Amino acid sequence: MEEASIELLRIRAALETQRLQDAINILLEMHPADRAEVFELLEDGEQDILLPLMDVTSTADLLEELEDEAALDAIETLTPAQLADVLDEMEPDEAADLLGDLPPERVTETLAEMEEADEVIPLLGYPDESAGGLMTTSYIAMRRQTSTDQAIQFLRDVSAELEIPYYLYVVDRENKLAGVVSLREIVLAMPGTAINDIMQRDVIYVESTTDQEEAARVMSQYDLAALPVVDEQGKLVGVITYDDIVEVIEDEATEDIYRLASVSDNDLEPDSPINEQLRGRLPWLYFNTLTALFASWVVSNFEALIGQVAILAAFQSVVAGLGGNSASQNVAMIVRSVALGKTTVRQLWPVLLRQMLVGFLTGLAVGSVVGVGVSLWQKDPHLGLILGLAMLMNMVVAGIVGTVVPFLIIAFGKDPALASTVLVTATTDSMGFLIFLSLATIFLPYLE
Amino acid sequence: MEEASIELLRIRAALETQRLQDAINILLEMHPADRAEVFELLEDGEQDILLPLMDVTSTADLLEELEDEAALDAIETLTPAQLADVLDEMEPDEAADLLGDLPPERVTETLAEMEEADEVIPLLGYPDESAGGLMTTSYIAMRRQTSTDQAIQFLRDVSAELEIPYYLYVVDRENKLAGVVSLREIVLAMPGTAINDIMQRDVIYVESTTDQEEAARVMSQYDLAALPVVDEQGKLVGVITYDDIVEVIEDEATEDIYRLASVSDNDLEPDSPINEQLRGRLPWLYFNTLTALFASWVVSNFEALIGQVAILAAFQSVVAGLGGNSASQNVAMIVRSVALGKTTVRQLWPVLLRQMLVGFLTGLAVGSVVGVGVSLWQKDPHLGLILGLAMLMNMVVAGIVGTVVPFLIIAFGKDPALASTVLVTATTDSMGFLIFLSLATIFLPYLE
Question: What is the C-alpha separation between A189 and A209, in angstroms, rounded?
């Protein structure tokens, strides 16, 4: 960050004094990843001056590193022919991602001008969040009769363009995946050895329709640097590399954190434009308003009781709040455990029983302390008793809804982070008020 | 998961009929990662029967794949000599991790029996969460005069033991990092080329004291499969590989999600033992109880008011709840943005101004709807007005504390996820009650 800021200042200084070539040179001397970081910090006008002056390869490198939106902004002023040249230089999967975000007519125009359109076109059909949407077509596949020398020669001929140079895949005559061999194994084998003799036959792969999160899980579980992707006939169609997976894992974690906190736009940043903030945050705030008003309605039924014993209004939120806190703990654990592939829907019953017990014990622990404390503070043991009892009961409720709701969402094939926290705390709020005020009604003769 | 269960049943069946060798064979035929998954599902007694019957290499593979706690359980019954043999077969970084969790006297006994103790001992001194704690000493370093043929020959001699076979590092006579060359570049170079002529000089590295999260960020930003680690003199001391980084990213995401949900033990699972659940969850529940009781105290000061206008008790939680919800959105965005290296503490002011504006606008949007709705529902426009106004004001409060608190925690060098949600919602709860009930006091003559 520090360093990037210095380069940014130097580029701006060069631009202001019209030393365009200096500005370009500063950019080109940087690592492509840093270059992208600085480029994103430039104003649109500055970007539009610099981009046309960069050579095609550097532009391709830059676009590969930019975030999706920034890349789209940057290419806006390029002609289809210019864009086609740049896309030809990019990795096929990155080129396909960029094309996938363009309007259809621009895609057609650009593809018509591209030399390597046939590497990119097959990738355009896969959904963004599938293994197919993540893979590249830039890999080496060979037949099992190939010798190690031939493989190395082949590698020499094509290697500069390859994204995955450390694994070579073996296919049969129908292009079905038959084995994998690493560059290391090829180098270490005696010259002339057939790939068939050194390849590993038991290849771990995913299908192109597999969800990207599942693909990430497979690569992480088996410590793979590259994962082959096959179609429904078992034919090799692409390969996913570890750097894509790191991005998937980060994106999925962001998604879970945002969903748990009721933010519905995963690209939202603390300093995103106001309209994006409102779009990503207001829907859940409105939904939460509905659940909060339902809880208000529950309390409003006890208006007469509260009129008589107003101090109840001071403590009802303790019951609701602690229940919500406990339920959020439950939801977070289940969401994370499911995301990491450790918990499946079949574990509902053991988890439910355990969480009810945990709810009971935490309720006992917290409820007894609060009960005694409030008894002394308010000099009213009955108030302390019903408060402690209500907390105990609502923590058991929290254990139940905090488990059942996320598991129900999983059973419907959805992400349990999606609505769990809001739905679950809505329940613990309303139930907390209901339990506490109902108990107060029963014990009314003893209060105050 | 499905498949693992079948293997588990087959192993249990074999154990019950005393066909020990069959049970072992089923285990050994599996991929090491799957083997570890099944092994963890076995009872302690079953594990104790099987482990001594496995050969040293398979045991080493198994221990590398097991979770820390499961690995510790498994080796409990091994003698120091047996354990030393197994550790010799493991990757040095994995062996060091395991040793780091053992009691000091057991470590000394075991190291005395190990043949490759000198590869492991240097790793024992680094903190778990630093680059040094993550790196392995199993890499290739050579001098720049080495030729490509010599490098390949060297690789042939040592390769079977190597974890990072695709990058070779170049060091000077003081062992300072001078360059990096990939196996691909060595293979593609003319035989006899000096490494000096093909190596890349501008190596990206981290120091051994660097936090593991920062190391992960560097590898992810520059798409590196391996990252060299140097000491304070710039001497090469180890290398971190991509599979370690995937684990770090997953662990850090779990940590953020758990901290945001007030779970203080990152290893907690929905079905973890009761005592671990209580230990990981009760501390924050107690802390939350304190903040909830503070909010109760705020409300208790308005006891007389609520006694007069009991319906206020029904709506006070809407003000508090929506403020809390909005503040949680803020905290989640800042936590995630900081974790991904996109936001630094210097952005406090622009983010704060933006979030105050967002709080004002969401407060206006939600407050006006609720104000009008409750006016109609309760047939009391003054109640609607003070409710809407209080929501508006509390959402601005949410924007302020939801930004300032996490940034303050960052400024103190801590993780903003650590206490933000609880601290922030404690503020929005208390302030929500205070604002709403104060407004109600002012407007009291017009209520009901």
Answer: 36
Q: Does the model's ipTM exceed the 0.90 cut?
A: no
Beta-bridge partner residues of A182:
A167
Beta A167-171 vs A141-142: how paired, if at all? Answer: parallel
DSSP 8-class letter at B66: S
CB count in 10 Å sphere of residue B352:
17
Which chain B residue lies closest to A343 (C-alpha atoms)? B270
Q: Which of B281, B311, B370 sits opposite A362 (nearest CB)?
A: B281
- In this predicted model, what pLDDT tens digit does every residue of A366-418 receive, in sequence order? 999 999 999 999 999 999 999 999 999 999 999 999 999 999 998 888 888 87
For residue B377, what are its two tokens? 């529902």
Residue A324's φ and ψ, nearest 5 degrees, are -65, -40
Q: Would strands A167-171 and A177-182 be described as parallel, antiparallel, or unpaired?
A: antiparallel
Give chain A's end-to-end CA distance (angstroms, integer).
61
Judging contacts by C-beta atoms under 8 Å, the chain A residues touching residue B283 are none
Choose among A257, A347, A374: nearest Cβ to B256.
Answer: A257
Residues A279-303 have pLDDT tens digits of: 999 999 999 999 999 999 999 999 9
Question: Which residues numbered 358-377 in B keep a CB inside 8 Å of some CB on A?
Answer: 358, 361-362, 365-366, 369-370, 373-374
| Tokens 């230990």 sit on residue | B279
Structure tokens at B277: 């659940």
Do A270 and B296 lie within an 8 Å CB cutoff? Answer: no
Tokens, residue B290? 């304190």
pLDDT at B187 (0 to 100):
83
Q: Is the dihedral of CA B118, B122, B128, B134 positive or negative?
A: negative
> What residues of chain B, 227 to 266, have a C-beta less than 8 Å from chain A?
242-243, 245-247, 249-250, 253-254, 256-258, 260-263
Q: How far is CA B123 from CA A49, B1, B95, B133, B245, in A?
A: 50, 34, 9, 7, 17
At which residue do the structure tokens 């705020």 appear?
A: B298
Model pTM score: 0.82
| Ordered strands of the B226-230 beta sheet | B206-207, B226-230, B236-241
Q: Which of B257, B332, B357 sits opposite A274 (nearest CB)?
A: B357
d(CA B167, CA B181): 6
Say which range, A227-231, B185-189, B288-292, has the weakest mean pLDDT.
B185-189
Q: Which of residues 409-428 of A touch B (CB under 8 A)?
A: 422
Q: What number of C-beta contacts closer than 8 Å exist between A and B?
A: 329
Q: Is the separation of the CB atoms in A355 and B270 below 8 Å?
A: yes
Can you give the pLDDT at residue A322? 94
Quick: pLDDT tens for B262-301.
Answer: 888 888 888 888 899 999 999 999 999 999 999 999 999 9
B187, B225, B317 ranked by CB distance to A183: nearest = B187
Nearest CB to B317; choose among A155, A260, A292: A292
Q: What is the pLDDT of residues B24-45, one digit of tens each?
A: 888 888 888 888 888 888 888 8
| Shortest Cα–Cα distance, B173 to chain A (Å) | 27
CA angle (A188 as vertex; A186, A194 as ends), nearest 5:
45
- What's chain A's average pLDDT? 89
Domains recognised in chain A with CATH numbers: 2-128 (1.25.60.10), 141-251 (3.10.580.10), 274-446 (1.10.357.20)
In chain A, the residue whose alpha carbon lies closest to the alpha carbon of B309 is: A307
C-alpha B54/C-alpha A1 separation (Å) is: 50
**A310 neighbourhood in chain B, CB within 8 Å:** 303-304, 306-307, 310, 313
Chain B CB within 8 Å of residue A336 CB? yes
DSSP code for A235: B
Which chain A residues contact residue B335 at CB under 8 A?
A: 257
Give the angle B182-B128-B246 at the CA atoms, nearest 5°: 50
Chain-centre distance of CA B408, in angstroms?
Answer: 21
